[in-house]
Design goal:
- The protein is of the alpha+beta class and 312 residues long.
- The protein has 7 helices and 12 strands.
- It has 3 domains: 79 residues; 109 residues, Cupredoxins -  blue copper proteins (Immunoglobulin-like, Sandwich), CATH 2.60.40; 92 residues, Cytochrome Bc1 Complex, Chain D, domain 2 (Orthogonal Bundle), CATH 1.10.760.10.
- Helix content is 35%, strand content 20%.
- The strands form 3 sheets. Strands 3-2-1-5-8 form a 5-stranded mixed β-sheet, with helices on one face.
- It starts with 14 loop residues before the first helix and ends in a 7-residue tail after the last helix.
- Bound molecules: dinuclear copper ion (CUA).
- Dinuclear copper ion binds next to loops.
- The site of dinuclear copper ion has 9 residues, from loops.
């Protein structure tokens, strides 16, 4: 498809499907609009005041018409619903094995952290043909991470994680926009995604200043902040071990179970008294206000990197 400014070329694996659905909805809507306004116009002209149209023989209500148009619109609606729901489900389920990156929005910039530890501002370098999952949060107000060429947009909220995924299908540069009014420089809160060939990307990564991986930086923080004192199982305070925690169901004190996803891990750091693992004291202090989003991301990367211990 040609590249209009308001309709950039599709550059992600699911972008053509989003376009097809959008165009189909547009066509259906236009047809209904034409039908309704067309009939309105016809009747307005035919039965205008003073016209000699036949007003004596009013047509009786026809059940055949009533039932057919209701059924037809119902089926059309179900079809569109199924189409949209199926696409939505795939848009919200990243394929397993997607590379995971962190995006932090703040007034007025996007900070990206690669798992290998490299970080960049208002730029996002990616290899072509590999799915990526972005885990995103905001440090201040609500922003919205918008990648028009990849047909994806997600609000980025302070205090919680949002994620999105896509797989770039072409190399090139594509705009990043903020799609939520977030203050004075909202309109300047833009950046670009640079999609490169696999080997160019590897070279780019290599050329960045050497950095510690996020997980390793998180491990250091884990010791510095004193987390390891309780969570490594050797201290006097009993705290749950975190090996293999990510993605596992955790039984809670007072009943119920939660899956240890990013939301749970984040809340456990900031509001540890809220969801206490069954069988443990609510002894952990809150780290709210003491560590920034950057540090939470590192701890998160570390905790996710902890594999389950082999059963002994
Ligand atoms: Cu950030 Cu608008």
């Amino acid at each position: 498809m040609r590249d209009f400014p308001w309709w950039p070329g599709a550059a992600s694996s699911y972008a053509p499907e989003v376009d097809h659905l959008f165009i189909a909805l547009l066509i259906v809507t236009a047809l209904v609009l034409a039908l309704v306004f067309g009939l309105m116009l016809v009747f307005a002209v035919r039965y205008r005041r003073g016209s000699d149209a036949d007003r004596d023989h009013r047509v009786k209500k026809s059940w055949r018409w009533e039932v057919s148009w209701t059924t037809a619109t119902f089926i059309a609606f179900l079809g569109l619903f199924y189409w949209g729901a199926d696409l939505y489900r795939r848009l919200y389920h990243p394929p397993s094995g997607a590379t995971e990156l962190f995006v932090l929005g703040k007034q007025w910039m996007w900070k990206v952290e690669h798992p290998e530890g490299q970080s960049e501002i208002d730029e996002l370098h990616l290899p072509v043909g590999r799915p990526v999952r972005l885990l995103m949060t905001s440090q201040d107000v609500i922003h919205s991470f918008f990648l028009p060429a990849f047909r994806v947009k997600r609000d980025v909220l302070p205090g919680r994680y949002e994620s999105l995924w896509f797989e770039p299908t072409q190399t090139g540069e594509f705009p990043i926009l903020c799609a939520e009014f977030c203050g004075l420089d909202h309109s300047h809160m833009r950046g670009r995604v640079i999609v490169m060939k696999e080997e160019d990307f590897a070279a780019w990564l290599e050329a960045q200043p050497p950095a510690e991986t996020l997980a390793r930086a998180g491990a250091a923080l884990f010791r510095e902040l004193g987390c390891s004192g309780c969570h490594d199982g050797r201290g006097t305070v009993r705290a749950p071990r975190l090996d293999g925690l990510y993605g596992r169901p955790v039984p809670l004190q007072g009943g119920g179970t939660v899956v240890a996803d990013e939301r749970y891990i984040r809340d456990s750091i900031l509001q540890p008294k809220r969801e206490v693992a069954a069988g443990y004291e609510a002894a952990m202090p809150s780290f709210a206000g003491q560590i920034g989003e950057d540090e939470i991301l590192k701890l998160m990367a570390y905790i996710k990197s902890l594999r389950a211990r082999p059963a002994s």
